[in-house]
Design goal:
The protein has helices spanning 2-13, 37-44, 48-55, 64-74, 78-88, 106-114, 134-141, 158-164, 166-171, 175-192, 197-209, 211-219, 267-292; strands spanning 120-123, 129-132, 227-234, 238-248, 256-261. It has 293 residues and is α+β, with helices and mostly antiparallel strands. It folds into two domains: 2-88, 434 Repressor (Amino-terminal Domain); 106-292, 2-Layer Sandwich (Beta-Lactamase). The protein has a five-stranded antiparallel β-sheet with strand order 2-1-5-4-3. Strand 1 (120-123) and strand 2 (129-132) form a beta hairpin. The chain is elongated. It starts with a helix and ends with a helix.
């Protein structure tokens, strides 16, 4: 977490230049992009030595006043400021461990079925897909086995799908926007669960396998937004414009429910209706295959 704090602060310093914050720039080549540590410390009203130690992770007891001053100097928005606090004040350090496989409450599984033809899925703390209903599967991952979320250790994972699965890359019209949101979400999860090995292992895997992920991860995108308007290119029903809401489930270790829906009487609503008809027609065959297995 200490290195993440330093990387985050350096990434935000790199976005500012002296002119942006009212400092004189006397020209000459700068060794690093953006503000120097000394300039940032001057703006925040702390000593250069103290700020350097903070960026290096050697000042774990930074006060609210200091963190607020640094946030103002870096012009952080509210999401970035909350992330700064999470990195500067992690929970009591502990050896990273592998958490128990996440489970769904039976009532959550019933809820997925109860929403009917609204595409829905439940996402775990490391972006594993813990369950989806018939329409959630048909909309987002019809090329995968419907029962895949029921296999701990081999579940579909949203981040892996976004960066390593060609079907998912083709699904999102604004794939780069979806990728950026996915990385920001994974960073938030890693900050909230600093002693969990799974997010760290997932980040390491994706960094090795995807240049796009590595570049986005190093840029430290931070955004807490649980509602989006997504443009999809579905292989069966064509273009869809859907609202995507994500709700945190109570008492479930930050498991989240994702829902997709369209404007009433819109072409996208008709597209979802067609997809529901197609997925219903294929349900008996899938049930027969599961029974055969």
């Amino acid at each position: 977490m200490r290195s993440e704090l330093g990387e985050f602060l350096r990434s935000r310093r790199a976005k500012l230049c002296p002119a942006d914050v009212g400092l004189a720039d006397y020209g000459g080549r700068r060794r690093v992009p953006g503000l120097r540590r000394e300039e940032l410390a001057q703006l925040a009203g702390v000593s250069a030595g103290y700020y350097t130690r903070l960026e290096q992770g050697n000042s774990p007891g930074a006060s609210d006043t200091v963190l607020d001053a640094i946030a103002r100097a870096l012009r952080l928005d509210s999401d970035e400021q909350a992330h700064l606090y999470a990195l500067a004040r992690p929970a009591t350090p502990a050896a990273r461990r592998r958490g128990r496989p996440e489970r769904l409450r039976p009532s959550v599984r019933l809820m997925l079925d109860a929403v009917g033809d609204t595409p829905a899925l439940v996402i775990g703390r490391s972006t594993d897909v813990l369950a989806w209903n018939r329409m959630g599967h048909a909309l987002l991952a019809g090329h995968l086995d419907f029962d895949a979320p029921d296999r701990p250790g081999r579940r579909p994972n949203v981040a892996r799908l976004v960066f390593l699965d060609e079907h998912t890359r083709e699904l999102y019209t604004d794939w780069r926007g979806k990728a950026r949101d996915t990385v920001a979400d994974l960073r938030r999860s890693a900050a909230l669960h600093p002693d969990d090995r799974e997010p760290a292992e997932l980040v390491g895997e994706l960094t090795m396998k995807s240049r796009d992920f590595a570049a986005l991860w190093s840029a430290h995108p931070v955004r807490v937004c649980d509602h989006y308007l997504r443009e999809l290119r579905h292989p069966l029903v064509g273009r869809l414009t859907l609202y995507n809401e994500t709700l945190v489930l109570p008492d479930d270790d930050r498991q989240r429910l994702g829902l997709f829906y369209a404007e009433p009487d819109s072409p996208s609503a008709a597209g979802l209706k067609l997809l529901a008809d197609l997925s219903t027609a294929g349900a008996p065959q899938r049930r027969h295959e599961r029974e055969a297995r």
